[in-house]
Hints:
This protein is mainly α. Helix content is 75%, strand content 0%. The chain is globular. The relative contact order is 0.16.
Amino acid sequence: MPPESQIPIAARNASRRFAGSLGLFYGTSFGLLGTHLPFFPVWLKAVGIEASWIGVIIAVPAVTRFTVLPFVTAFAERRHALRGALILAAFVTLLGFSLVGSQHQAVPVLLLYALTCCLWTPMVPLTDAYALRGVARYGLNYGRLRLWGSAAFVVGALACGLLVDVIAASQLIWVIVALALLGAAASLSLQPLDRPAKAVGHVHGGSALLRDPRFLAIIVAAALIQGSHAAYYTFASINWQAHGLDGLTIAGLWALGVCAEIVVFALSARLTWPPAILVVIGALSAVARWSITAQEPAVPVLAVVQLAHGLTFGLTQVGTMGLLVRHVPAHVMARAQGYLAACSGIVNSSAAILSGAIYARYGQGVYYVMAVMAGSGAMLMWLVRQRLKGMMDHPHNSVSGG
């Protein structure tokens, strides 16, 4: 990339507009996640929905990831309509959560939430695909763009944690709706992008990825490791609240994990180990994290354990993306991310439903099951690491930017 002084002013302005609008959209999207993940289950419980139903409802996003999401990402990519798809998804998400908030019975909530998630869950892979095309177009740094999302997640969780002690838990859904409104507004500022060129000599169809055993190994291992967070995402806030923790403490515990994630993302360029090894380290960290969490540790210990989120989620994500970026051509990256999300959806939905049944009977013992899942992902990645090593010598593209 040439020095900034040699870049035409119009191009620099376009680059800044793209980066600013995308950073804002990342922020609002992950701010919504920051309020939803910790406190949507609390709202479900507050309106009288039972634990077994909560497990089923929380599994819905994971189900849409393998039933609907791949079709949405593939359609948007084939039609070269990533920006339009993001705008539509943002407004449907706003409408959907507004309707969900008007219901207090399990079945109507489940149905409306399912319809909402059909376009809400594709937003992250679509946004990442849109971001990667902007990185290639303008020479930006992907990590700096993505960090706004993680930072906003922390702010959203902390803000909602403060509000949970001020407003009734049954009103938390409207905080989620407010963030969805900001996301819909931010989507309108996203900048149009040129169509990407096909990579000559590489895989030309997204379906060919599903015939590649190395690609399948990557997404299955990642799904098992990330899927081991299912009990945490579904029942951590409920369990901590049952043990007497206030809303701000709960939000602070969530924020600790995401702050650790931000640090890992920020330092990822300095990690020199092979991506497969990063994934294994993340998985083994998850085994230790869930094994300790199952012991019902005191808050100081729990705070330290929460910092492991930087490894269990962040390092696993860095390693997984490192493997994908070396194996998947840019013009089918959205579909590759869709397949990854679909595989994760199968694992996450099964784990969330299973977690609901196990938590209702054994409480925090559910985390032992999550530890086994993470260990399985570590074993798979370790067994295939030599076959994956060859990918590193022939990268297809880069996400580092200029």
